[in-house]
Amino acid sequence: MFKTLVNARSNRAMAARLYAAVTTRAREPVFFAELGVPDTIDGRFDLVVLHAWLLLDRLRALGMTEVSQSLVDALFAGFEDSLRDLGVGDIGIGHRVKKMANAFYGRMAAYDTARDSNALAEALGRNVYRDEQGNAGALKNYAISARAHLARCDLSTDTPDFGPLPELGSTR
Length: 172
Hints:
The protein has about 170 residues and is mostly helical. It has one domain (about 1-165). It has helices at about 1-25, 30-35, 40-60, 65-85, 90-110, 115-125, 135-150, 170. Helix 1 (about 1-25) crosses helix 3 (about 40-60), helix 3 (about 40-60) packs across helix 5 (about 90-110) and helix 4 packs across helix 5. The longest helix is centred in the N-terminal third of the chain and has 25 residues, at about 1-25.
């Protein structure tokens, strides 16, 4: 039993480190200023989800299911905290978190089922840019590069390496 408690605590600590990496990267100004991701609550949510998908995909490949679940728990705790910061009361939190969960898992499924880079660009266009003009191709290139960088990380000890930030001129 003690070992189970230690493992759970270790998984939560690792998930907190991974959560910090996801949110830090998702807040980088280049996504908004250069790639045209809407600088809105929805746009920020979509970038967190994209980076979470990249990291969860890597954790799944490593068979780290407990850490994956701890990361998802940390993400939703962060979503709830953000809603509270925006002034959403206790009564509205459950409804809003449910909507966020549906959006989160819908995007996870869309990105997971994107069989090639064109399908990933389409999924990013639908979800991040809401089918508006945007740089879905550039964001797709970034996601593919980030995925490759994460594949070389030892997530049990390293800070996740999403690779270089996108540069508009080199990703079109």
